[in-house]
Amino acid sequence: MQAILNFIVDILSQPAILVALIAFIGLIVQKKPAATITSGTIKTILGFLILSAGADVVVRSLEPFGKIFQHAFGVQGIVPNNEAIVSLALKDFGTTAALIMVCGMIVNILIARFTNLKYIFLTGHHTFYMAAFLAIILTVSHIKGWLTIVIGALVLGLIMAV
Question: Biggest alpha carbon distance in the chain?
Fold first, then answer.
């Protein structure tokens, strides 16, 4: 029984699978045909993996630039690139970021439904970027477990509604 539980946890710990599961559930709730559900879920997994791979390429390609810049000007710094930061964050905070993103979107919808703040934030890559940063900030602030997800989701949902 423990082996089955470990297998399920390992599968759901992969951010691409977790986001695809959310897309799968959303398509089922919308009563889409089976072909649309299947293709939508597969597209979500592939899109997430392509985004991660592309961000990793950006990170690796900018590393030599940072060294050249340091040598040429004698200063040490970083190349600010949000995709690069998200790529690095996915390795350690991917599951937490994905859960913050999903729960934050739900909070955003609830805020829009029950308050005067009627804005629904639909820019997914910005939502994921903010969720990744919230996951990092809350984790390094020694907030652990579900509390990270709850606080992150509330903050993200409020940011998206304002």
Answer: 60
Tally Cβ neighbours within 10 Å of residue 100.
31
Task: Please state the pTM of the whole predicted model.
Answer: 0.65
Lookup result for tokens 């791979």 = 53
Domain boundaries, position 30: 2-161
Contacts of 14 (CB under 8 A, 6+ apart): 94, 95
φ, ψ for residue 65, nearest 5 deg: -60, -40
Number of structural domains found in the chain: 1
Token output for 29: 């709730």
Structure confidence by residue, pLDDT tens digits, 87-141: 777 778 888 988 999 899 999 999 999 999 999 888 877 888 899 999 999 999 9
- Token pair, residue 28, equals 């089922």
Helix H or strand E encompassing 109: helix 82-114
Q: What is the pLDDT of residues 65-93, one digit of tens each?
A: 778 878 888 877 666 667 777 777 777 88
